[in-house]
């Protein structure tokens, strides 16, 4: 979060790079051989990694480079974890998986809720700053969820029948949602889309 450390997931695990010193600062080993997703916690003391096999998520202490607590798991068929995102407090952590689902974990208790309506593998997840809204995106669809009730709200954002969603981003205002599709960027109001 302060820009001094870069985490790169890949073969063998996650490499931590000292940005200012342009040098490798440490490595976090993967239990399955490959980390497929990575996300810093909001205060920079924790880092979450997703595994290619087993559908598991590990939270690491950035300073000691050691896992904190038990791994989170539960995806169908041990689908690889393809996306991770924290809320602003670091209490909630969302993942997305090739099994077309997303889980939101309470990082303190390990309990989780499951969100299973995407048409294809979930490639991107976003949690609102307060952890109450989850956005999941596959190549086919972008869905908005109410986390406490585990219910989809509104209708899918901008469906047009094509499987061309390339990415999504939520602005700092917590309302403007950008959806990148082939040859265009669409902007949506998260509040308006949640009501429709």
Major beta sheet, specifics?
5 strands, antiparallel
Gross geometry: globular
Rounded to the nearest angstrom, the distance between the terminal CA atoms is 34 Å
Number of strands: 16
Q: Give unreliable regions as ranges.
A: none
Radius of gyration over all CA atoms, rounded: 16 Å
Number of helices: 1
Fraction of helical residues? under 10%
Approximate strand percentage: over 45%
Strand order of the largest sheet: 1-2-3-4-5
- N-to-C SSE string, H for helix and E for strand: EEEEEEEEEEEEEEEEH
Look at the structure and give the mean pLDDT.
Answer: 92
Helix/strand class: mainly beta
Provide structural commentary.
This protein is mainly beta. Helices cover 3% and strands 51% of the residues. It contains one helix and 16 strands. The longest helix has 6 residues, at 190-195. The N and C termini lie far apart (34 Å).
Summarize the structure.
With 196 residues, the protein is mostly beta strands. Helices cover 3% and strands 51% of the residues.
């Amino acid at each position: 979060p302060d820009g001094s450390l870069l985490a790169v997931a890949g073969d063998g695990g996650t490499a931590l790079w000292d940005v200012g010193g342009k040098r490798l600062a440490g490595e976090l080993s993967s239990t399955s051989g490959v980390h497929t997703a990575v996300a810093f916690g909001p205060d920079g003391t924790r880092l979450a990694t997703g595994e290619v096999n087993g559908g598991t998520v590990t939270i690491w202490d950035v300073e000691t480079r050691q896992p904190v607590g038990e791994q989170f798991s539960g995806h169908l068929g041990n689908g690889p974890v393809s996306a991770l995102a924290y809320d602003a407090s670091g209490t909630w952590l969302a993942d997305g998986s090739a099994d077309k689902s997303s889980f939101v974990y309470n990082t303190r208790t390990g309990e989780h809720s499951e969100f299973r309506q995407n048409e294809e593998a979930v490639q991107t997840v976003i949690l609102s700053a307060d952890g109450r809204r989850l956005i999941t995106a596959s190549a086919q669809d972008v869905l908005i969820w109410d986390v406490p009730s585990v219910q989809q709200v509104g209708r899918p954002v901008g469906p047009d029948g094509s499987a061309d969603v390339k990415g999504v981003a939520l602005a700092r205002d917590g309302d403007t949602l950008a959806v990148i599709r082939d040859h265009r960027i669409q902007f949506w109001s998260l509040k308006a889309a949640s009501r429709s």
